[in-house]
Amino acid sequence: MVSNVYLGRRKLLLGMGSALGAGLVSACATGQTGPVATRQAKGGSVLTKPIIIAHRGASGLRPEHTLAAYQLAIDQGADFIEPDLVLTKDGHLICRHENEISGTTNVASKPEFADRKKVHVIDGEPYEGWFTEDFTLAEIKTLRCKERLPQLRPGNMAYDGQFDVPTFEEVLELAKRQIATTGHTIGVYPETKHPTWFEGLNLSFDAPLVTLIQRYGLDAADAPIFIQSFEVTNLKRLRGKTKAPLVQLMAKDGGPFDLSKAGVTYGSMATAAGLKEIATYANGVGPEKILILPRDASNKNLIPTSFVADAHKAGLVVHPWTFRAENYFLPDDYRRGQSSDPTYLAQHGDLIAEVQAFMAAGVDGVFSDFPDIAVQARASQ
User: Fold this and answer.
1) Distance CA 360, CA 292 (A)
2) Is the pTM of the predicted complex or chain greater than 0.85?
3) Is 97 tagged catalytic?
4) Residues 288, 320: contact at Cβ < 8 Å?
5) Those residues with Cβ within 8 angstroms of residue 303's Cβ, 6 or more apart along the chain or in another chain
6) I need a surface site. Which of 55, 87, 103, 339 has the fewest CB within 10 A?
7) Which of 65, 92, 97, 194 does the annotation list as catalytic?
8) Which DSSP category does 4 fall into?
9) Residues 310-365: tens digit of each pLDDT
10) What is the DSSP code string of 296-310?
11) Is the peptide bond between 322 and the residue preceding it cis, with omega within 30 degrees of 0?
């Protein structure tokens, strides 16, 4: 069974948005069903199922962050679609995994942009390539997307060159249309990428992000949206600008770049005390999954940590990342096939079993590149 969750001072009623007008969630008032989630208000007893978050869309089956990937995820039953957000030179929010785009678009083959290739030091690390902040939206729209992991997902290469780079507003429009078509609320789960870097360029996420979530009726505590970030300062600032739920992302190693000089690490944030501090400005946490189910030296799962229980005690929902079907990403417990096969790491293992192990550990949602498999795992849990 999935554990009950005490949400403390905030009560998330996903998919039952109270926004008015023609916004994204206005149709909820007509009786649409909404995303499911594990939640319990203090003194109450509401237990439903974890949400399925389509990580960059159905990115295991289509090039990530394309409208085709998001549409397929919706068709497969995802509750939320997740766009990573970066900014263009003229301040538009677009959907890319990183602001360096040579790995996900055909920009390197465009002679008119050859002189845009640069080296930028972002969050303390040097990167060479083409960066969204050096392009206008009109220029970005001339590019076409390609598969980021061709060695693991060669089938996705069949779609290279077919799709342009979507804006965040186009994703919101897609969700709005699907609400009207299907009668089900489709949530959005945007991530602000490298906010400190962009702020140093006088490009802030705050104004365009808040403007859009207000325009689409998502500026409410019960709206079907989560705003996520690996940094802290921008989440705290957004807390004062929007009522939308916020999620603190964290990895097994390192720490938030904006607090690196203060010596803050994700390890310290993942403690009971650290999670209690996160609850002062966020509604949930998005941990790397190994923080919940660690692995031994043989890449096999160990027993769950106290992370989920500690987060729930602090009043936070828990949405770990990322659940992928390829053996490359799975612990040895769930890998399938012959390791001598040259395609072994690209072959699919038992993702259903892995998702169910985390649901049994009490998580409130999962990020997955294969939302159809995650939906199947939830249904048979």
Assistant:
1) 11
2) yes
3) yes
4) yes
5) none
6) 339
7) 97
8) P
9) 999 999 999 999 999 999 999 999 999 999 999 999 999 999 999 999 999 999 99
10) -TTS-B----SHHHH
11) yes
Per-residue confidence (pLDDT) for residue 47, from 0 to 100: 42
pLDDT value of position 351: 98
Tokens describing residue 13: 């009623």
Task: Give the position of tokens 């769930």.
Answer: 334
- What value, to the nearest 5°, has the Cα angle with vertex 256 and ends 255 and 260? 80
What span, in angstroms and rounded, lies between the C-alpha atoms of 146 and 114? Answer: 18
> Higher model confidence: residue 38 or residue 348?
348
Angle of helix 168-182 relative to helix 206-215, nearest 10 degrees, comes to 20
pLDDT at 232: 98
With left for phi above 0 and alpha for psi between -120 and 50, is residue 310 left, alpha or beta? alpha
Work out whether strand 93-95 and strand 84-87 pair parallel, antiparallel, or are unpaired: antiparallel
Q: Which helix H or strand E contains 110, and what residues bound it?
A: none
Which pLDDT score is estimated for 381? Answer: 81
Nearest to 160 by CA among 143, 174, 141, 135: 143
Of the candidates 55, 65, 312, 319, the residue annotated as catalytic is: 55
Name residue 9's amino acid: R
3 state DSSP class of 201: coil
Looking at domain 26-97+163-379, its CATH superfamily turns out to be Phosphatidylinositol (PI) phosphodiesterase (3.20.20.190)
Active site residue 55: yes
What are 181-240's pLDDT values in tens digits?
999 999 999 999 999 999 999 999 999 999 999 999 999 999 999 999 999 999 999 999
CA distances for 159 relative to 59, 63, 132, 145, 162, angstroms: 12, 7, 22, 8, 6
> How many beta carbons lie within 10 A of that of residue 22, not counting itself?
11
The H or E element that residue 232 is part of is none
